[in-house]
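Whether sequence alone determines local backbone shape is best considered at the level of individual chains. The sequence in question and its structure tokens are set out directly beneath this paragraph.

===
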Amino acid sequence: MDDFKTIEALAKGAVKGALEKYSETIAENGKKVFAKLEVVLGKAFNSYLEKSYEKYSNIKTLLYKEKPQKLRDFFVTPRLRKGYDEGAQVVSALNSTVVRNFSGQKFIIVQGTGGIGKSMLMKHLFLSELETCREFIPVLFELKDINRQANDYNLMDAIFEGMNILAESTSKHAIEYALELGMFMILLDGFDEINGNKSKTFTEKLNDFCDKYPDNNVIMSSRKIDDFISFEKFAVMNTMPMDKSQAISLIEKLDYHAEPKQRFIKALDDELFENHEEFASNPLLLTMMFLTYDAGGKIQETPHLFYENAFETLLERHDSTKEGYTRKIESGLRSDLFKKVFATFCCITYHNSKFSFSKDELINTLNKVKTAVAKDGIDFDVENYITDLTNAVCMLYREGFTYHFTHRSFQEYFTAVYLKEQTDDIMEKRGLAIIKTDMDRAVIDNVFRMLCDMAKDKFEKNILLPFLIEIEKDFEGDDIWEFYFKRMVASVCFIDGDLIPTFCSNDATYKYFFLRHHLENAALLSPPTDTDAADEAVRQHLNDDGTGMLYILTRDSRHMEEGRYVHDDKTLYKLLRATRIGQNILAISKAREALTEKYKNIPPNDEFFSV
């Protein structure tokens, strides 16, 4: 596919294929309309598709940072599972048609953990639509760009204007007509990268977009989110971890010295995969495992230790093209100081939801970091440090005029490292600031999970307890369970026999899941032992067959016209306390008291922790 004429033919073929599907429909409006649409769409999209094919075919990765490699040469097609049932059928995402047919819907969410290959999959689907499927005109849009939009943006304009194809009104009218016909496959990459204050607006706009143009194919990727209920029209597909054969296949595909590859493959096959499946089943982490293994490092089992080892490997790593040559650290910083600077940089950028930077933005941010670390006697040249980040440790890569994190998981790990090193008051202040800035990311990302692993007591005392205190600041009365229940749970319904909550807002959803996870980790919340009996008691009280909807009285739900209001039924209210939902709320409501008691005699710790 390197030949330009071949790429040009692919681009023209995609537009032609999409047009041919609707030629009879368009022909009803006259041959002139069809001919004009063919010319306008061809003019609008051929150049975009050609450039995008080149862009998405050749990828820079952690291993291939200097020279992009063809995605097809190292990409292992992931397996997808429909919905949340672990026993559900699994299919290999060979191309966009397979994914559409397997999901059974035109609107799809592909979710998975960080590093599992979601963005690679979106590029793969774009390429496969051009190369083989040719049913739709593919468009790939990175959702982090939504963060730059004003709140009153038009979603169609936001998606298409970046392609420089909306300059003429004729192009816009043609695209609107093509959208009405359903000629596009729109790939939206990275829902989790939209800032929390913009995600609700985007969700509403996307739902409206799908209502207005229901015949297009829309596939959106995201890290795992517990609640996609707002996307009613979307089927949820889960990106499955790699099995051993896929992991071996990925290593075999790497453009790397044969001898270390074979040693690592043998170790994977013998016992390494089973012993470290959490890392070995994730493409990014498997690559990091391989680099660490090749450097003679130990494969750690705890995520934050794994990242620490991987970074040390990258920092000390020998250039793969020159035997015995170690990359020079241009900034001259020793390892611990280099990491302190990078941890500060990661915390600032993570708090500000910045994952990519212009050169000026990068320099300005590092100048702020330089000022911040000067108090610790650290000095460095910003330009040299940028060179180190891109060339020596591969934490950033440059694409055109923009710098990107090689992977956001490093930004999350070093944000946790930064918070761990701080005194109690600074950890609390900056940790809570990150949570308040984007509650969604506090749940979805791994910053606070890794921070808890690194310094459990400090996390509970300085972040979890103050977070609970902040929530309860306007509590009045004597029933703290009711306080949490009314502010978190909007309704409860039976789905496939299970009692499932919906939440008052996105904020309530993420607070619930944040608290539930960390209280489980603190051994302050355990799964109820008899939820089936409690659920059945609710069902019998309602005289319901398990398929109905029960609405909970909250400040946000009085507009509902159907259902049962729990505050109008004290028996029902009492029964709900015994369910899994009620018991989780009960544990949350008791957590502040338990943590206050646990840490009441422990004085503030002013020691500055090092990595």
Q: What stands out?
A: The CA atoms of residues 312 and 574 lie 55 Å apart. The chain has a mean pLDDT of 82.
